[in-house]
Amino acid sequence: MLKSISKKDFTATNVLIIITILMYIVQINIPRGGLYLGLNMNFTVNELWWQPLSSMFAHGGLGHLGMNMFVLYQFGNLIERARGAKELVLLYLVCGILTSLGSFAYIYYLDNYVNLVGASGAICALLGYVAFYDKAQRSGIITWILLISVAPLLIGLPIAWYAHFIGLALGFIYAIIRK
User: Phi-psi category of 84—alpha, beta or left, where left has phi over 0 and alpha has psi -120 to 50?
Assistant: First the structure.
């Protein structure tokens, strides 16, 4: 029998996941949704000021969305249980937006033809945050970020490896500041 939805199902992590899924549905149902909501040169050229935030919720396909939401579910819940919903949401949004802005610097100066979509930068910030507090997992987390950043490049997949590294660093710095 189906379980009824209770108040405890509305964790900040689950709300972020629901918002991301809803934004993906919006993205695929508007003309050029990925370009409009992704982070690209339109951010400055056409003053699409929402892109650093909206790009965190736009995705490149169902596989991309599913993978990111799986990792958000794991690490978001971990942080939320340990530090609370407010800390998770603040970490996710602040570091996600800062990662987008740092990634835009890469786009602006090095590759004007990139359209950045996905929550990976914000999720890597969660991993950086956990790496700061859990020294036993730190080398494994860094290795994982290296793998998910470099391996896809080796097989020719377009991946924003720089967003992963920026997010990881920002999450670590955020943890130091909020300690």
Answer: left
